[in-house]
Design goal:
The protein has about 625 residues and is α+β, with helices and mostly antiparallel strands. It folds into 4 domains: about 5-85, 2-Layer Sandwich (Phosphorylase Kinase, domain 1), CATH 3.30.200.20; about 90-270, Transferase(Phosphotransferase) domain 1 (Transferase(Phosphotransferase), domain 1, Orthogonal Bundle), CATH 1.10.510; about 350-395; about 465-628, Alpha Horseshoe (Serine Threonine Protein Phosphatase 5, Tetratricopeptide repeat), CATH 1.25.40. About 50% of the residues lie in helices and about 10% in strands. The protein has 26 helices and 11 strands. The longest helix is centred in the middle third of the chain and has 34 residues, at about 365-400.
Length: about 625
């Protein structure tokens, strides 16, 4: 491709392609430098509102100036779309380096420190990346790391959010709050960076699956496998730093990029002297130094540094490194080589006794012997403690005249007895129309006996809540949300997950409340509606499950009737487009008094069936009979 853009950028070759468009290497004649040009896909740029927002917010991103952020130079119109003119980085993506097994643990730590400081700088300037992944981290031959595509994910989400069914890509590197549509902050970027580092250290992401939904579920509910199980050569300190970044609760993660960068740099220093690569390459100056927050440039400021840069293979000067930004206190920063040669900082013992210091040094030098001695001492101490505890218990028992603890009382009721009494009382309260009071009493029992058959108690609460009228909108909305998320966590129940989460959203909207805790789940389900759910359709299995359910429903055995619910669910989920199965499951719930479950299923049919179909008319009619 040989083409001139804006009269000054000569396209040389394509160097990347993705969902946002293509990236080309180009030569800027007037400044004699190479640049990278990203040409956005026309289906993104054809929306005037998108173009206006993109240009407005991209101008903020262009003001970022950091040695570890790919600089944005300019924006140009090109045919029916937009071009982003960026700094050209002569290197490889982190993704490619991981695939080529070209990184040591120290390389990964120093790359992570550079990107963490770049993110910290961006967050201080109120810019969140939102799409940190190995493809967006570029590494030069001298191991200078730079992150690119700041803000692009935000524009893409704004565009795609209004287009159901568009796949926004795998959530493999997304934070839990990003997946569920929650509010994002800098710690969301640090979570994604943690995923990248985990991937670089082990060769596999912490969470993976066959579908975006399965990956998202892992991010939300599963703990990552310890790094050292996959790569025993990784140091415990490195593992702890990365796993902290992967905490589900953002409050437990690194508070900011600077603190994470310091920890990564210290872990690299603890590994010993730095040797980057197999050749004696030049160590880049200050690639992990913190950079002060800058003010937006004025028109009189030069757009880029005029200092020395790297040389390209053809001998042309390429301005890659911006002018180093001094620290806020004016002191020059140390080089990466000096940083990594230092030991991690320890606590300052200003008045440490010399004797304690000598003991500590002796223990550190003879750690194996010291560990054995400490272990023996600990075992001896435990034996003494246990013997004393046993003797004390025996003496108390002898004083009471028995060798076992006294009972709680001759007339004390067992949890089973109290539960049976509670069920009987619940039935009376339901007959009197006091369902809420019944639920409160069951919850009080659950708090009193948290270990007594919790699943059985929860099922009792669930069945009673399902019989509540729609006037109890808050309780029903919470139940629908919880049940939908439980179904979401089961790949065989995704059609039911959609039905319950949509129904929960309806009730939240009815209360004039936002449904932020469920919108992310619904987006993932809607994206998979034309793929995952359709591919899982199995009409033959659905027919077999339905036949089993019919047979069990004819039985007078309560356990058989209860088992029929699972078979009806199997029928619905194996053939979600066959509304007859939805009606049969709704009828089952009506017969069991679980009216809200029937409402959820009928409402789903009403929303998805063609309005001229018999299924739509039947669902509407039955919903009216239930009072919606």
């Amino acid at each position: 491709m040989s083409e001139i853009i804006a009269g000054k950028y000569e396209i040389l070759e394509e160097i990347g392609r993705g969902g946002m468009g293509c990236v080309y290497k180009a030569y800027q004649k007037n400044l004699e430098r190479y640049v990278a040009i990203k040409i956005l896909s026309e289906n993104l740029a054809d929306d005037p509102e998108f173009r206006e927002r993109f240009q407005r917010e991209a101008s903020i991103v262009a003001r970022l100036s950091h040695p570890n952020i790919v600089a944005v130079y300019d924006f140009e119109r090109y045919k029916n779309t937009i071009c982003i003119i960026m700094e050209y980085v002569d290197g490889s993506s982190l993704q490619r380096l991981v695939e080529e097994h070209a990184l040591s643990e120290r390389d990964v730590l120093l790359i992570g420190a550079q990107i963490a400081r770049a993110l910290h700088y961006a967050h201080q300037n109120n810019v969140i990346h939102r799409d940190v992944k190995p493809d967006n981290i570029l590494v030069t031959p001298s191991k200078v790391a730079k992150i690119t595509d700041f803000g692009i994910a935000r524009f893409r989400e704004a565009k795609f959010r209004t287009q159901p069914g568009i796949n926004m890509g795998t959530p493999r590197f997304m934070s839990p709050e990003h997946i569920t549509g929650g509010e994002l902050d800098g710690r969301s970027d640090l979570y994604s960076l943690g995923v990248c580092l985990y991937y670089a250290l082990t060769g596999q992401p912490p969470f993976d699956g066959d579908t975006p939904i399965s990956v998202a579920t892992c991010h939300l509910y599963q703990a990552p496998r310890p790094i050292r199980e996959l790569n025993p050569s990784v140091s415990p300190l490195t593992e702890s730093i990365v796993l902290r970044a992967l905490e589900k609760n953002r409050e437990a993660r690194w508070p900011d990029g600077e603190s994470m960068a310091r920890a990564l740099t210290e872990a690299a220093a603890a590994l010993g002297p730095i040797v980057i690569g197999s050749l004696n390459t030049e160590i880049p100056q200050d690639p992990t130094r913190p950079v002060s927050v800058i003010s937006p440039p004025t028109p009189s400021q030069p757009p880029e540094s005029a200092g020395d840069g790297f040389r390209t293979p053809t001998g042309l000067k390429r301005l890659i490194e911006p002018t180093p930004v001094p620290q806020a206190n004016g002191n020059s920063t140390e080089s990466l080589e000096n940083l990594a040669s230092q030991r991690p900082p320890t606590r300052s013992w200003t008045e440490e006794p010399k004797g304690l210091s000598l003991v500590w040094n002796w223990l550190r030098e003879r750690w194996g012997i010291a560990s054995a001695v400490l272990l023996v001492l600990a075992a001896f101490a435990f034996a003494l403690w246990y013997q004393g505890r046993y003797q004390l218990g025996t003496s108390l028992a002898q004083e009471q005249g028995k060798g076992t603890p006294a009972p709680t009382g001759a007339g004390a009721a067992s949890p089973r007895t109290e539960y049976d009494q509670l069920v009987a009382a619940t039935q009376r309260m339901l007959a009197e129309g006091r369902a809420k009071q019944a639920i409160e009493q069951i919850q009080a029992f659950k708090e009193k006996y948290p270990d007594y058959e919790p699943q059985r108690v929860d099922n009792l609460i669930d069945r009673i809540t399902a019989g509540l009228p729609l006037s109890e909108i808050e309780l029903l909305a919470k139940r629908r949300d919880q049940k939908g998320k439980r179904f979401f966590n089961d790949p065989t129940r995704l059609p039911l997950a959609r039905a319950y989460l949509r129904a929960a959203r309806d009730l939240y909207v009815g209360q004039q409340r936002s449904y932020t805790q469920g919108e992310g789940f619904l987006r993932l389900l809607d994206q998979g509606a034309s793929g995952t759910l359709a591919m899982n359709s199995n009409p033959a299995a659905a027919a077999q499950a339905f036949a089993r359910a019919r047979f069990k429903l004819e039985s007078s055995d309560p356990e058989e009737r209860s088992a029929a619910e699972k078979d009806l669910m199997d029928a619905v989920c194996n053939a979600p487009d066959n509304y007859d199965y939805w009606f049969e499951l709704a009828n089952f719930y009506k017969s069991e008094g679980m009216l809200d479950d029937a409402r959820v299923l009928l409402r789903y049919v009403e929303e998805t069936a063609p309005q001229t179909s018999d299924a739509y008319k039947k669902a509407t009619r039955e919903l009216r009979s239930l009072g919606q």
